[in-house]
Amino acid sequence: MANFIDRRLNSKNKSTVNRQRFIRRYKSQIKKSVEQAINKRGVTDVDRGENITITKKDLSEPIFHQDRGGVKDRVHPGNDRFVTGDQIKRPPQQQGQGSGQGDASDSGEGDDDFVFSISKDEYLNLLFEDLELPNLEKNQLDKLIDYKTVRSGYCAEGVASNIDIVKSLQGSIARRIAMTSSKRKKLKVLESELAVLVDDKHEHVQKINCIKDQIVILENKISKVPFIDTFDLRFRNFAKQAVPTSKAVMFCLMDVSGSMDQATKDIAKRFYILLYLFLTRTYKTIDVVYIRHHTQAKEVDEQEFFYSQETGGTIASSALDLMVKIMDERYKESEWNIYAAQASDGDNWADDSPRCKKLLTESILPKARYFSYIEITQRPHQTLWQQYQEVALSTEHFAMQHIETVEDIYPVFRELFKKNSKKAA
Amino acid sequence: MMKKREPLSDQCDWDFDLLKQYQTEIERVAKHYRLDTYTNQIEVITAEQMMDAYASVGMPIGYNHWTFGKKFIQTEQNYKRGQMGLAYEIVINSDPCIAYLMEENSMTMQALVMAHACYGHNSFFKGNYLFKSWTDASSIIDYLLFAKNYIRECEQKFGIDEVESCLDACHALMNHGVDRYKRPQKISLEEELKRQKDREEYLQSQVNTLWRTLPKNNDGIEHKKPTFPNEPQENILYFIEKNAPLLKPWQREIVRIVRKVSQYFYPQKQTQVMNEGWACFWHYTILNHLYDEGLVTDNFMMEFLHNHTNVVAQPDYNSPHYSGINPYALGFNMFIDIRRICEYPTEEDKLWFPEIAGSNWLDTLHFAMENFKDESFISQYLSPKLMRDFKLFYLHDDDQESFIEVAAIHNESGYKKVRSALSEQYNLSNIEVNIQVINAEIDGDRSLTLKYTPHQNVPLADSKDEVIKHLYSLWQFDVRLVQDDENGEQEVIAQCPERDSDLDTKKAS
Q: Is B45 within 8 Å of B102 (Cβ atoms)?
C-alpha cells in the first residue's frame, strides 16, 4: 500500500522562521556587514540583496569530539603498493582521516567565513529598522496629486466605442422576456383551447376562427417587440481616481570647494545612498539631481559629483538658487515629493549665510517634504551652521546634524529620521 | 508460463498515474522477496522544499531554532553554487513511512527512489532490532508535533532568548543523551501528555528531596560519604533532567525533548552501512527483477545503472574524491556478497562462513538485516573476497611514532585484522567520546564532575571549553571535566567558571 501526496503546492518556506531566528541571533554581525556594504555601492544601486559575512567561529555549535593525536586505526580501500609492515612517513599536515561519522571533519579546515546573502528586503529592513519617513503621515492624504482612470461599473449613456456588448444583450433579453411574457401566456392558453376545439367531435367553425384571429394578433404583437432597443444599451463607465503621487525627487547638494577633500565627500556619499535607499521604500520613481557648488553651482552627473575636484571659495546660496530654479522648471511641487540633502564642511562666505537662510525658509522649505543638512567637519561651526540652526528651531521638516568621522554617518542618519516619539508623547 | 508483458513507459517525465503503476509493480516484487514494510506515504516535493527538509535534519516537523536556519542557508548556498546536488529522496522512520520524492527526478529516478526508500529503508526500519527497540515509528510524528508546540508555548511564556539558550546548551550535549546499555522506554505521546503535568511537579519534588539541606541525625558515627551518583552516568542529559538543582520545570521538559530526539536518531548512527547497503541491494534487485520480467525497458535500465553505479562507487585512498569508505558501496557489496556466498560458495567461503555457505540466501539476508548493527555486521559478514575486491589495508597511526605503520593488508594473514579494525571503526563507543558524570557534590558546593576516558589516548578537542560552558548554564554550579593522567591522578582539563587551581584545591580540602 502506498499513498501519494503532492506537496509541491504547500507553503515553500518551511524554514523561514528558522532563517529569521538565525538573522535575529546574528543581527549585530549582520548589521555591521550591511553597513560596510554601503560603501561599495552607487547611490542608486539598491535593487539587490547583499552578501553577509560572519566568521565561522561565532557560529560554531560546540560538541565534545575527539581531537587529533593518540592512536588512530583506520582501514582504507584501494591498496596499490603497501605490504604488511611498511612504514610510511607521516604527511606534514594530517589529512582528513575520513572519520566516517561525527562532526570532527571540520577540524582540518581553516576558519572560513560563513557567507550568505540576504534579500533586498531583508537588507533594507536591517538598514532602516526603526526609521520613519519624515512627514509622510501628515502629507500622505491631503495632497492627492495624481489621477488614474479606473473602471467603475456601467452606465446607460456614453460613446459608441464604450458599448459593452454582453451587458447590452443581457439587457435586451431581459427586456424581451419582460415585455412578451404575458402575451405568451395568453397565446399558450389560446393554443390549448384551439387544440381542444379541433379535436372535438362537434364542429366549432366560428369559435375556431375567432381564436385563430386572436392568435395572429398576439403573434404580431410579440414579433413587434424589437430585438434591441436604445434602452438596452450599456456603456462601460470610467472614473478618475486620485492617487498619491509615487514620484519623488531628491536633490543632493554638495560643497566641492577646495576645503572638501575626498574623505569628506565619501562620507557625504554614504549619506546620500542612505537617503536614496530610504526613499525607494516609499516611491516608485525617484529622480536624483546632483548639484555641486563652490562659488557657482552646477548640475552634474553622479560620477562628476563625487569624484571631480574643483577649487575656489564657497557660496552656498548659489546651490540653493539653482535648486529653486530646477524645482520651478522640472519638479512642480504639486507632482513631486521633494527631498533635499545638503552636505558641506561648513565653510561659507560669511555674508552669504543669511541669504541661504532666506532662500531656504522662503523658497525651498514650503515646497519640500524634507530638507536635511549635514556638516562634516572637525572644526568649530561657522556662520552657515548658526543661520541654519535658527531655521531648524522654527521648522519641523528641516533637520541638521554634525558628522565628524565615518562612524558617525549611520547614527546621524538614524538621528535625522528616527521615529518621532516625542511628537506622539 | 510467464507471458511477455507490455513494458511500463520509460518516458522521462513522470505523472502520478505512472508513479502508481511503477509503485504497484515494485510492491509486488518486494512482497515476493518478503520485504515487510510500514505503509508508504510518498510525498512529491520541490527542490526548495527538499532544502527545507535537509535543514531540519530529517525531522518532518522540527521545533524552531536558529541552527536549522543556519543549515538551511548553508544548503541553499551550496546548492546554488552547484557544489552539491540534492539527495534524490529523504525517508523518515515513521509509521506510515514518509518518503520525499523530488519533483525534478526523471521517471527512472522516481522508480529507483521508491524501490530504495519505500521498500529498502522502510523494511529496514521495521525489521532491524535497533530500530525496534529504540524507536517507535508510530508515535514519532505525534511526539515531534508535541515538542514543537511545547517549545513554541515556552517561547511565548518565557521569551525566545531564554528558550534558545536552553536549547543551545542541550544541543551541545545531544550526543550524550542515550544510555547505551539500557533498553530505553519508547516514546509514546499519550503517556507523554498524560504524565507531563505530573512529571513537572514530581520531578521538581525529587530534585528538592535530593538537595534538601536539613541537618541529618548525628548518631556519632562517621559514615563514609556515599558519592552521588552511585555509579558513573553516561547519559548526561538524563542526569541533568533529573538532578540539576535550579532548572525550571519547563527547562527540564526541553532537556527531555532534546534527549528523546537524540534517542530517535541513535539507531541511524549505528546502522549507516547496513541501512544504505540494504536499500541499495533492494533497489538493485527489485529493478533487475522487473527488467527480467520485461516490465522495464533497456532505456530505463541504462539510466538506472548509471545512477546506481555513481552511488555505490568507492574511490581509492589516493583519489582526490576519497573521503573515507562510502557506506553505500560497502553495504551494497556486502549484501551482494552474502547472496553470492549462499548461492555460489567457493571453498574459501565454506571455510569462513560454514553456517551460511549454501543456505537460502533470502533467509540469510533477512536474518542479517534484523539482528546486526554496522559494527557486528562487518565483523560477522565481511568476506576475504570483498576485502580483496576493495583492496582494504589497515593503517596504524600512533602519534608517539614518527611514521604510520601498515598493520595489515588484504592477504591471508591480514584478513582478520583488517576486518576487526574496520568493524571497530564503526563502533560508536570509539567514535563518540566517552564522558561520564562521576560526582555531584550534593552536600558541598553542588559542583558537578565529569570524567573523560580517552580511547587509545586520543585527546579531547578544544571545543570542550565551550561545551562545559553550556553544561554550566544548565547545572548552574561549578562544572569540572577531569581526565586521568599517567599517574592515575585526576587532572582538570576544563571547568566553568574558570578558576585558579590553588583556589580549587582549597575547596577540595
A: yes
